[in-house]
Amino acid sequence: MRVTVVGAGIVGLATAYQLMTAGATVRCLDVGEPMAGRSGGDTRIFRVAHGDPALVAEARRASELWDDWSTTAGRTLVGAERAMVSGPRVPAWAEAMAAAGAIHRVVDGVLHDPAGGVLDLVATGRFLVGAVAPERGEVAALDGDGTVHLADGGTERADAIVVAAGAGTPALVAPLGIEVPAALEHHARFTFAGPADQPCHLDARADGDLASTYQHRTRAGHWAVGGHLPDADTAWELGADEVARRSREAVVDHVRRVLPHLDPTPVDELRCTPMRGAGDGVHRARAGAVHVVWGDNLAKLAPRIGEVVAADVVGDTPVGGGGRDHAP
Question: Among 127, 140, 196, 262, which one is least packed by beta carbons within 10 Å?
Answer without folding.
Answer: 140
